[in-house]
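Two quick folds needed for the group meeting slides. Do the first one here.
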Amino acid sequence: MNKSILALSEKAGRLLIKKGLKLAVAESCTGGLLGAAITEIPGSSSYFNGGVISYANKAKTRILGVPAKFLKKTGPGAVSAETVGAMARGARKLLRADVAIAVSGIAGPDGGTDDKPVGLVYLGIAVPGAVHTYKCRFKGTRAAIREQSALHGLRRLIENL
């Protein structure tokens, strides 16, 4: 696994322990990469409650409670600030965590459109009393986009702690 992701995961873990907070993740395009990075750190069970890989839209609605209207053709779509915000809130609630990271995007190489190109990723960070969302544009291979998404998700978590 990417050393930068592991370093940020370790830093986030130290902050979570220091603040006495529990973490959850809701992943789509990263497919478990965030959860893997977090659990790679020894002792992460003391602050990581778990995660959901909600790759399909049905999983986003059924498991995380993302409103179906967000995911319809007339809605903002799975790759949107609204969706990652709802995913983060849903993961926080479902997994009884204090904070949550959510990620949804288009890792490619296919699936992009003019409005939502390959490399477009949204991150959501749910903390007590607020949800922050971030729009990101990454370049590279599918693997590179997934790694950049996990890396920036951890960075945004740290900023919000």
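Then this one, please, same format:
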Amino acid sequence: MIVVFGTICLDRIRRVPHLPEPGACVETDEEVVSLGGEAANTAACLMRLGARVRLFGNPTGEDEDGSLLRDALLRAGLPTPGTAGGYETPVCDIMVAPDGERAMVGHGFSTIEGSHVRLPELDGGDWFTADPNLQASARRAAASAQERGLRTYLMDFIRDEDRALLDGCDVWQSSTDWAGKRGDWELNLDLCRAHARRHDCLTILTDGPAGLVVCEPGTEPRRLPAFRCEQVVDTTGAGDAFRGGMLFGLDRGLPLSDSLRLAACVGCLSCRKMGAVSALPTLQEALEFIAAHPEVAAAYV
């Protein structure tokens, strides 16, 4: 059982011909309302692959957006969180350019933290994963999971106050949006090497279509290539899908190389449509895609 804790929100995604310059206006070509939030995206990916998963995080509000979010969770096969009166459902407005790059503006997120958040039930869990967006609640949940002996997978925990949690985690993942630097492989390799040594955990830093760096404690970091989609439509949630693929593989006891390969494949395929969860592949679809790209798959051995 994989316990996923973190942000659950509604995404409003608008396709635009290009991201606007300051002071400029662009007209949208298409708009999609979708399930969003790092935790919800990862849980939806795990469900699609066939994992046993529990999702916990912030509630929905008793507003129209909350109703849309609950419907989106049901369509993904995920449990709906409780509702909270007088609480604004968090919504992320996302503009997506033709190359898949995006810009985001959120509202309702600043009111999530505190009494609204339900901490996770950990009984029967094998893996626990969290993002830091629920702040103190996320840190309390991760610490509780570690105390209970669950293997922990932390994503985007990068603050100095996270040091104790990182010392006790099994896997750390982030992207060059938060750590390292896009395209600077020397810097990213050094960062992963230092992080793995400092915290004695598997360290993963993704860099979108450029690939990723991974480092196991006691080894040298490796740079691995990304799989390529025929057409990248929307990169929203690709890192969350990568995390889902990794957790699925690790929970199934797959070798690290196979888990990384699956994660990279799932992250790639999630970019085929608008919305973070609209193009998530089944396990069979992912395996067929890997088999169709042996030149990339071989790099993960």
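Slide caption for protein two: The longest helix spans residues 185-199.
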